[in-house]
Automatic annotation (TrEMBL):
<dbReference type="InterPro" id="IPR004358">
    <property type="entry name" value="Sig_transdc_His_kin-like_C"/>
</dbReference>
<dbReference type="InterPro" id="IPR035965">
    <property type="entry name" value="PAS-like_dom_sf"/>
</dbReference>
<dbReference type="GO" id="GO:0005524">
    <property type="term" value="F:ATP binding"/>
</dbReference>
<dbReference type="InterPro" id="IPR036097">
    <property type="entry name" value="HisK_dim/P_sf"/>
</dbReference>
<feature type="domain" description="Histidine kinase">
    <location>
        <begin position="449"/>
        <end position="672"/>
    </location>
</feature>
<dbReference type="InterPro" id="IPR003594">
    <property type="entry name" value="HATPase_dom"/>
</dbReference>
<dbReference type="InterPro" id="IPR001638">
    <property type="entry name" value="Solute-binding_3/MltF_N"/>
</dbReference>
<keyword id="KW-0812">Transmembrane</keyword>
<feature type="coiled-coil region">
    <location>
        <begin position="409"/>
        <end position="445"/>
    </location>
</feature>
<keyword id="KW-0472">Membrane</keyword>
<dbReference type="InterPro" id="IPR003661">
    <property type="entry name" value="HisK_dim/P_dom"/>
</dbReference>
<keyword id="KW-0067">ATP-binding</keyword>
<dbReference type="Pfam" id="PF00497">
    <property type="entry name" value="SBP_bac_3"/>
</dbReference>
<dbReference type="Pfam" id="PF13426">
    <property type="entry name" value="PAS_9"/>
</dbReference>
<feature type="domain" description="PAS">
    <location>
        <begin position="300"/>
        <end position="370"/>
    </location>
</feature>
<dbReference type="InterPro" id="IPR036890">
    <property type="entry name" value="HATPase_C_sf"/>
</dbReference>
<keyword id="KW-0175">Coiled coil</keyword>
Length: 704
């Protein structure tokens, strides 16, 4: 029995030992995962945050922070002192575990993870004390010294692009430049009340803080993906007590002075003497400043007085409705030589009765609302009784402790006269324009009526000739018939010429008055041009002139007025025939240009001189003078052609060289009307109508 009990005790003891061993092993494994030593990359010249002291040891606010952190968390800290650029590379390459403290930015976030914020850092601009500057804009041309890798450099370049920067490789290079007198302003980081940078940078003894440009939180940086280490650092920062952080800060914020009783008395006495001296100097300085400011105030008052006196505008002050101050310009405007006579008078005495109520209300509102009123135009009566126009603006001021109104007046009589003169001129011009338009309307109407009156008897004469021709055609024998036939053809051709001239005059008049309307339908433009060309081909060839029609497409539907297009082509062909001698050629071509159609009428005739090419499309203008030209024409045809083309939203232009022929090119948009608008009915003019149209258009070519 005893053996059983002993065996059980041994068994239970072994089980307890095994359990404790497993638990202890687990604890060792967990503890082995935590780093017992952290390598921290530190800047070697970032005072007062991280630098190497004269003994060669790391020192600074951040160094003390990390020492306190390591002590709190039971972690050994190893400081790796190097340049700023190397600190980033060491963390990136794994040569250091932690960066001691830096600002977050997107570029660094590509290879680092950041801890929670643990300390705020101020970045300020320090300038030499002998430089008179209020803010950073006052030193924009001096050149602010900043290290190449300092965050302040990028901040200033972004937010103050107009401020000149002097970029140096490191803080040490900046301080060397300060020693040499090359840098008179620079960017330095500081911590809370530690604004006296000379404590850490003796080179800056003659510098003072101009202003803080930003305050940013520092974070710890670790290599990207090292979440376990980052969690350890964040937890460690949270474990640090408020007192621990204050101890780190107080060491650098305050200077502890241990004094004996006698030294305290000496210290107080010395401080008191210094304060008395300072107060005495300050009193003397303030007296000097008061004298200087009084002198400046007197000079300023004199300047303002001179400015008021020399102002071309009248300036006066009213207090309780009476004038208490006035400049010479007011006397000039009111016609009073001695301005002193205006003192204690009411300005309303000079205001025209029609404006007194408005002006009085203006003065009352200024005092009531304490505001400025814009210019009010009114009439005033000068001392000699002359009535003039003035512009007046009023403002509420205080004069000798009492509410008053400041008024500025300007004589605008001359301007009013000029405006009235311009108004009358404008009215006269408008009247003349209406008369001119009415004259043009009457002229157009008269011209149209006369043209119709000419056309009526010509139609009767032409109809009579055609009737006689039909009568003589049945009896074409005899000598008298041959004479009659000869002269009747001449009469008929001249009737056609007069009809053509009258038609052109009527259409020109209709174009001017806006009554010539195009009858747009969808037509095959190639067929329209080809048919009208072939209809006159025989006549052209009878003149020993060849005519050639060509096209690069067989069909091109566009919206156009076919009758007027034919009229345009006949006019151009008529010109080509007149100016092309026997043996010459005329070419008519149609080109499809997708969104437009080009029609070319080209001849090998005499051409048109360069100096005449600009006028041939003008109304009643021809290339040859009236009494010198060898060919007939009124000078209306090409002008009418241009107008018809433009009514098709197209254009016509000329390529010509004297004695080498001419080419007229028409460009018409390839627009197509919708099915509901289009009318492709075969209502083409009959053959007789087309022959008569050709006879009319070709009537100024003798021998038709």
């Amino acid at each position: 029995m005893k053996n059983q009990i002993r065996n059980r005790l041994i068994k239970y003891t072994l089980l307890v030992i095994i359990a404790v061993s497993i638990s202890f092993t687990g604890c060792l494994q967990r503890e082995s995962k935590d780093p017992v030593k952290i390598k921290i990359a530190c800047e070697n010249n970032w005072k007062p945050f991280s630098y190497v002291n004269i003994e060669g040891e790391p020192e600074g606010i951040l160094i003390d922070f990390w020492k306190a952190w390591g002590k709190t968390n039971g972690v050994n800290i190893e400081f790796k002192m190097t340049s700023w650029a190397n600190t980033l590379d060491m963390v990136k390459n794994g040569e250091a575990d932690v960066h001691l403290g830096l600002f977050y930015n997107d570029d660094r976030a590509e290879y680092m993870d950041f801890s929670i914020p643990f300390m705020d850092i101020m970045t300020g601009i320090f300038v030499k004390k002998d430089i008179n500057a209020w803010d950073i804009n006052d030193i924009k041309d001096i050149g602010i010294g900043v290290s190449k890798s300092n965050n302040a450099r990028f901040y200033l370049q972004k937010n103050y692009p107009h401020v000149k920067l002097s970029v140096y490789p490191s803080n040490k290079d900046i301080m060397d430049a300060v020693k040499d007198g090359k840098v008179k302003a620079l960017s330095v980081d500081y911590y809370k009340d530690l604004k006296n940078t000379a404590l850490h940078y003796p080179e800056l003894n003659e510098f003072q803080l101009l202003g803080t440009i930003y305050i940013k939180p520092l974070r710890v940086g670790v290599k990207k993906g090292n979440e376990e280490l980052l969690a350890l650092i964040d937890d460690g920062i949270k474990k640090m007590s408020v007192n621990q952080l204050k101890d780190v800060q107080s060491k650098w914020q305050y200077i502890t002075i241990n004094l004996t009783r006698q030294s305290a008395i000496n210290y107080v006495l010395g401080v008191s003497i210094i304060i008395i001296i300072i107060l005495l100097i300050n009193t003397l300085y303030l007296r000097h400043r008061v004298k200087v400011n009084v002198k400046r105030l007197e000079e300023s008052q004199q300047s303002y007085k001179s400015l008021v006196e020399l102002s071309p505008d009248g300036i006066f002050v009213q207090c309780e409705g009476k004038i208490v101050f006035v400049n010479k310009a007011v006397g000039k405007i009111l016609g009073e030589r001695n301005v002193e006579n205006l003192i204690n008078k009411r300005f309303l005495e000079f205001v025209h009765p029609d404006y007194k109520e408005v002006v009085q209300k203006r003065f009352d509102d200024v005092q009531k609302l304490k505001t400025t009123f814009s210019i009010l135009e009114e009439k005033i009566i000068k001392t000699n009784g002359e009535l003039i126009d003035v512009g007046m603006s009023t403002n509420a001021i205080t004069h000798k402790g009492k509410p008053a109104t400041l008024t500025i007046i300007r004589d605008i009589s001359q301007r009013k006269k000029e405006e009235e003169k311009k108004r009358k001129i404008a009215e006269e011009e408008q009247r003349l324009l209406k008369e001119t338009l009415e004259y043009e309307r009457l002229k157009t109407e008269l011209f149209s009526n006369i043209s119709h009156e000419f056309r009526t008897p010509l139609n009767i004469i032409l109809g009579s000739i055609q009737l006689l021709n039909s009568t003589y055609n049945n009896n074409s024998q005899g000598l008298n018939y041959r004479y009659y036939k000869k002269y009747s053809d001449i009469m008929k051709q001249n009737c056609y010429r007069q009809i053509r001239l009258i038609n052109n005059l009527i259409d020109i008049t209709r174009i001017d008055s806006g009554f010539l309307k195009m009858k747009f339908k969808n037509h095959n433009i190639v067929e329209v041009v080809e048919n009208i060309t072939l209809s006159v081909a025989a006549y052209i060839e009878s003149k020993e002139v060849s005519i050639i029609f060509d096209t690069d497409t067989e069909e091109k539907l566009i919206s156009c007025d076919a009758d007027n297009i034919e009229r345009v082509i006949l006019n151009l062909l008529s010109n080509a025939i007149k100016f092309t001698g026997p043996g010459g050629s005329i070419y008519v071509n149609v080109y499809d240009r997708d969104d437009k159609v080009c029609i070319s009428v080209k001849d090998t005739g005499i051409g048109i001189p360069k100096e005449k090419q600009q006028i041939i499309f003008e109304r009643f203008r021809q290339a040859q003078p009236l009494f010198d030209r060898e060919r007939e024409g009124s000078g209306i045809g090409l002008s009418l052609v241009k107008s018809i083309v433009e009514l098709h939203e197209g254009r016509i232009y000329l390529n010509s060289e004297y004695e080498n022929g001419s080419e007229f090119i028409i460009e018409i948009p390839a627009n197509i009307k919708g099915e509901e608008e289009s009318d492709l009915s075969q209502d083409e003019p009959c053959k007789e109508d087309k022959v008569e149209m050709i006879n009319i258009e070709f009537s100024d070519i003798y021998g038709l």
